[in-house]
């Protein structure tokens, strides 16, 4: 076998063109073989088909058809967020232009741990993160793999700024905050009730009054866009309480942060500008392929905690001679330029284009809520705040709700999530596909109706 061609360099374009055709063809045949939002017949059948397609993962002799075979199999066995009936999670259908930019990132393969691996990419990252940070009224922002890493970093920076941290979270907070406390050797977070799905300020006040931690070591984590219901905590009230009690405020806006892009919905985030740190995921409302996370910090000084030296990446004499020191912009070392797809998207669509996408998915959620509300056999949890709609067949026991979801998953007909709120189990649809039409939503509701035993 001749030495395989590289993606970059002079051979790159000629080597890639036919391979890209292969990929696009396999994506098409795979999606056609699937024929719906996710593969039919459940996990065992999907696993068997994937096992067959893979065969020996490391054969003695290579297989030139591996690209087509595996991409086809993956597409055939995917839950496709571009299908209007795939609407369970914060699982975004990526924009074509963002994905094309991501391909360029893969081809050039800059690594953001040192300037000599990413001369232009490091400048692009610095410019775009500063601009996004400014949108969030912050001084700077780090690129992360997503909300989980952003939340971990936020807790780490709080701990380093105050020599310890006691997290105080709502009962509605993302599980990654609990894991961050565990990972960082901090005490268990104190959990404040969120009876209506959002953090209760009176209960927060009581918790902060009761906690006797040294001033500054209390860290409140509020949520702007809960994963289960898309609800936004009362941010101004929480910010007031944090100020009154000398607590630090982190806002996990992994989901809701994207509302900033919309003139119509931005006001829902009032109070966001009072946070010390903000988590934002552009692989949610932002339509990026994974990964595209950010952690914004109000005080750039907080980031000095991440400064770190490794002679081969940022020797002092290199830094003094003017080579930018990048290592302190992440806890990772080798790091993809996820900023490229973000930059291309922001510039291609502009505020207007991105705001329109946000408005579209929020409007879809309202449409779907209307359908549910006027349907005699369904109950709506509440009017949607962002683009999540929770509903359930009226009077159905929880195990029926769970079974309806699993039946639709098993048959490959629809992907909905589940959420337990007010003590009951709800079907969750997270609408993130701006191409979904009202007819699709009506079809989804009909499917659920047809699957629910009378
Ligand atoms: C999605 C989400 C996270 C986790 O983000 P990942 O990108 O999955 O790591 C954290 N917090 C909230 C509120 C989320 O919705």
From TrEMBL:
Domain of life: Bacteria
Pfam family, one: Pyridoxal_deC
SUPFAM superfamilies in the cross-refs: PLP-dependent transferases
Keywords: Decarboxylase, Lyase, Pyridoxal phosphate
Cofactor(s) it depends on: pyridoxal 5'-phosphate
InterPro entries on file: PyrdxlP-dep_de-COase, PyrdxlP-dep_Trfase, PyrdxlP-dep_Trfase_major, PyrdxlP-dep_Trfase_small
Lyase recorded as keyword: yes
UniProt similarity note: Belongs to the group II decarboxylase family.
Protein name as it appears in the record: Amino acid decarboxylase
Organism: Streptomyces graminofaciens
């Amino acid at each position: 076998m001749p030495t395989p061609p590289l993606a970059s360099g002079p051979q790159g374009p000629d080597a890639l063109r036919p391979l890209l055709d292969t990929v696009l063809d396999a994506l098409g045949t795979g999606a056609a073989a699937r024929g719906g939002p996710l593969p039919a017949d459940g996990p065992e059948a999907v696993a068997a088909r994937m096992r067959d397609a893979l065969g020996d993962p490391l054969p003695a002799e290579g297989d030139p058809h591996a690209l087509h075979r595996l991409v086809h199999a993956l597409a055939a066995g995917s839950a496709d967020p571009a299908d209007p009936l795939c609407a369970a999670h914060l699982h975004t259908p990526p924009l074509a232009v963002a994905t094309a930019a991501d391909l360029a990132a893969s081809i050039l393969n800059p690594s953001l741990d040192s300037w000599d691996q990413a001369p232009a990419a490091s400048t692009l990252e610095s410019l775009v993160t500063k601009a996004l940070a400014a949108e969030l009224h912050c001084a700077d922002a780090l690129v992360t793999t997503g909300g989980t890493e952003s939340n971990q970093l936020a807790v780490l920076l709080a701990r380093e700024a105050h020599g310890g941290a006691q997290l105080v979270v709502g009962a509605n907070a993302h599980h990654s905050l609990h894991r961050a406390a565990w990972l960082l050797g901090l005490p268990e977070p104190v959990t404040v009730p969120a009876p209506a799905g959002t953090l209760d300020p009176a209960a927060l006040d009581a918790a902060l009054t009761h906690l006797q931690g040294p001033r500054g070591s209390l860290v409140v984590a509020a949520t702007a866009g809960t994963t289960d219901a898309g609800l936004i905590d009362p941010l101004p009230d929480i910010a007031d309480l944090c100020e009154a009690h000398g607590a630090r405020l982190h806002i996990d806006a992994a989901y809701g942060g994207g509302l900033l892009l919309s003139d119509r919905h931005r006001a829902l985030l009032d109070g966001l500008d009072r946070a010390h740190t903000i988590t934002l995921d552009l692989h949610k409302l932002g339509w990026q392929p994974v990964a595209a996370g950010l952690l914004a910090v109000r005080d750039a000084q907080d980031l000095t905690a991440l400064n770190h030296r490794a002679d081969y990446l940022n020797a002092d004499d290199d830094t003094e001679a003017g080579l930018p020191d990048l290592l302190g912009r992440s806890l990772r070392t080798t790091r993809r330029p996820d900023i490229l797809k973000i930059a291309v998207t922001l510039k291609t669509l502009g505020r207007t284009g991105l705001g329109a996408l946000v408005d579209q998915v929020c409007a879809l959620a309202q449409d779907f809520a209307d359908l549910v509300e006027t349907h005699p056999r369904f109950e709506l949890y509440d009017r949607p705040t962002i683009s999540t709609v929770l509903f359930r067949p009226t009077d159905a026991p929880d195990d029926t709700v769970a079974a309806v979801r699993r039946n639709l998953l098993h048959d490959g007909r629809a992907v909905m999530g589940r959420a337990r709120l007010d003590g009951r189990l709800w079907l969750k649809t997270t609408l993130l596909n701006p191409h979904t039409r009202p007819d699709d939503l009506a079809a989804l509701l009909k499917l659920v109706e047809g699957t629910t035993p009378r």
